[in-house]
Amino acid sequence: MKISDIQKLVASYPRVPLTVDCVVFGFDENALKVLLIESDISVFEGKWTLLGDFVQDNETLDAAAHRIFRERTGMSDIYLEQVRAFSDPVRHPGGRVITMAYCSLVNIRHHTLRKLDNSLHWHTVHEVTDMAFDHQEIVQVCYTWLQRRIQEHPLGINLLPDKFSLRELQNLYEAILDVRLDRRNFRKKFFSMDFLIDTGEYEDDVPHRPGRLYKFDFDKFEKKKRKWIGIDFA
Amino acid sequence: MKISDIQKLVASYPRVPLTVDCVVFGFDENALKVLLIESDISVFEGKWTLLGDFVQDNETLDAAAHRIFRERTGMSDIYLEQVRAFSDPVRHPGGRVITMAYCSLVNIRHHTLRKLDNSLHWHTVHEVTDMAFDHQEIVQVCYTWLQRRIQEHPLGINLLPDKFSLRELQNLYEAILDVRLDRRNFRKKFFSMDFLIDTGEYEDDVPHRPGRLYKFDFDKFEKKKRKWIGIDFA
DNA sequence: ACAAAAGTGTTAGATCTACACCCATGT
DNA sequence: ACATGGGTGTAGATCTAACACTTTTGT
């Protein structure tokens, strides 16, 4: 028996409240930060939450994530990527709410130029605690996701200014991966990938020899279709 | 102003119909297959769809995926992983429906031992066409996801019998990645990772010298916490 | 005996790692 | 002049890629 009134079928099924939560990472003073807002819910008084909101009827999840980010921070044109859904039936005290976590990376300097809701604050990722809902877990999952992701994709560059020195880039990787890397090997690695564009400019206002400033050639990166055959489970 | 009646707040927000679709991969005759069912919806007469269903009120998405898989195939205890959500507001002719895609890997031989709904069929991934909804895109995204994932995680082993020869394993990788690999190097690679357990048994019913059969040591794999520092964008 | 795939080592090239000194700038 | 980080090269170890022959089984 075929189903002909599909509208009716869809209408008959359970619907769930669906939210998007943005885990917004920034990089400042050589530490990875996450942007949080004070909870406006009584039961979570004094706790911090991610930037989130319910999904509207006529928008994609990506669009919802961009909208939420824009509404809360005034910024647009930022890097956002879906990470995963959190769907424990009792994760939200108001009842069943499923949320899709998005990871976002912004340059913290651009960000602070904007007028912001003053309940927004940057928190060092390693020191975040006292979060509402399951947001602690969401931050942790996104952080782990980011650690993997920056090793195979240059998304981390979004945390830096347009023009950046190799020192800044290395500090970024060291902070996120929580390792110490050899400076010469790090440079060789990035130069050999051949995605850095030398701007010819130099750092300014540094109390030592200024470093060269580079941009990242995202177009070139996108064009190089990567076959990447290299099985390795370790 | 704090929000105190959080139940009421949640109740006031839009709800969306949410489904889970399982992309079930199998491996047979050296080709990657995907398990599809004939659509029971009039507008998609003659088209194929993934195994999907609406999410119930009190289950996680993972639980929904397992339930759907069990209901349709009779199997449990299978490998399932969340891939990503598809949320185009017009992806479903019955109205706004968001779906979460899950990738599942099963051994096609175990599978066919069960009595199955006879509208279920295995299709060669490269030849799938004429699918309902956006399921073609979902299959494509999951296939691409799988190609990456099997290079860093041994989930592909779930497509093989418990005991398998290295030839079978190599055929699997060659089929999924669509490349040709050197046999000796492939063996060296897997032996050096040291996750294969030699069962001491051999293939049977092959018209040539039988190969040794191995099991994969998933416990050992899980224990080896992988640091995996190796930046590489290419 | 033949067909078919199993099993096995070596070498050259590429990549990775570890490591130390001089240079340019601000104070 | 000195303190600070910028910039550079090399050698040894490791990993990767390319390559051919003998062995075992079924027919």
UniProtKB/TrEMBL annotation, chains A, B:
Organism lineage: Bacteria, Pseudomonadati, Bacteroidota, Chitinophagia, Chitinophagales
Signal peptide start and end residues: none
InterPro entries registered for this protein in UniProt: NUDIX_hydrolase-like_dom_sf, NUDIX_hydrolase_dom, WH-like_DNA-bd_sf, WH_DNA-bd_sf, WHD_NrtR
CDD domains linked: NUDIX_NadM_like
Stated name of the protein: 8-oxo-dGTP diphosphatase
Residue ranges occupied by any NrtR DNA-binding winged helix domain in the UniProt entry: 156-216
Residue ranges occupied by any Nudix hydrolase domain in the UniProt entry: 18-140
Membrane-spanning residues: none
